[in-house]
Amino acid sequence: MSIYPDLQLFIDGRWRKTAESLPVVNPADESILGALPIARKADLDDALAAAAKGFRVWSRTAPRERSDIIMRAARIMRERRDEIGHCITLEHGKTLSEGRLEVIRGAEFFEWDAGEGQRLYGRVIPGAPGIRHTVIRQPVGTVAAFSPWNFPMSQPARKVAGALASGCSIILKAAEETPAGAIHIVRAFQEAGLPAGVLNLVFGVPSEISTYLIPQDQVRLVAFTGSTVVGRHLTGLASQHMTPVLMELGGHAPVIVCDDVDPVQVGPICAARKYRSAGQVCTSPTRFYVGQDQFTAFAESFAAKAKSLVVGNGLSEGTEMGPVANDRRLAAMSELVEDAVSKGAELRAGGQRIGNKGYFFAPTVLANVPDNARIMDEEPFGPIAIINPVTSLSEGIAQANRLPYGLAAYGFTHSAANAARIAEEVEAGNVSINTLEASLPETPFGGVKWSGYGREGGTEGLDQYTVVKNVSHRMSIG
Q1: Topology of 254-440 in CATH?
Q2: Taking the model in full, what pTM does it have?
Q3: CATH of domain 9-249+451-470
């Protein structure tokens, strides 16, 4: 059995604690897992100095050597899949199988970017006789990165992988609610031989850390995953200093279920994915727009699957859905359900807290939800699904595009014509058809509209972490 890690900051190649700390709570039983140190201004100054030193070393390290270190760290993470997955379940609540899969996904991000870092090619532009124009890509500098609590391992991995593969140094502020994943990433890189100062890890009061780090001249990129409200605030702060941003923000993912699919087959598939990690996923399928003829059968099969799910401690055998992250999420779920029902929505499953110990909320299904219900505009970020009928594909697309969010969207159809319309007309950075997988290491991931800016993953994933420089060289003076 694994032991929850000793919680510390990591600055300039060394672990440290501070006088102040925050409790880390197990959402399944509300026990205290550990005390997380809070970074002070002096710690942040040390991290900035360390990152500057680390950048000078790392940016001058050969891409192949950088790749070798990243790959060694990824192998260590894979070898410790069970230990890290156990820690993720303790602090987040997701099932142990989900925790283990997240470790593997995080390792895959590192492995993909390690390869891409060796392919940051430039080009030569034809010029006049005696003149050569060369375009090169160079690491942007020190990155200030902020990762959320819902994926303790894979979300920090995205930021760290992009920065290190590009030759940047990074100061990572990981989530205070779920720090173990980031700590295990740092441990792996420390053992893999990463030079001191290249990767630094801090925790504390999020607003204080971002307000202090982002204005620093040394910080050349802000990479953030989290809510749209916070992302817009950080973007505004960065813009005052002309600092570029990489923003992966909230969503409210629609699913269009066309009349040509079997609703009894598709309904349980959609339900199983909806309640993964208790619905606390930015790409979680949430607003289901179902062809009118298929609506009844789809809603019934979806609700039956929701009611059958085993909810409990993620470490217990047979558990299919764990708790939500904290008591604030419990309150938010209850408020959204009550509001929707008061405005005419039908409660087909769940709708309430389970027990009084731990933060468990029943898998919930709302049907025929009116547009004036709060949940139609607000991302629930929890185990609540909305199922509404539509009379046509055009209406489904219009409903999918109704909100200012555009991170992920999904469609189910056997028609090539329907698939083409969904792919072309739905406003989202990631559109998946007949699958609910929105992101892979080899594919670019990011949103449009209020759901963010920039891409992580794929061949585009390192673009934000580099700057393009044109060098014009006349062979003779004069």
Answers
A1: Aldehyde Dehydrogenase; Chain A, domain 2 (3.40.309)
A2: 0.95
A3: 3.40.605.10
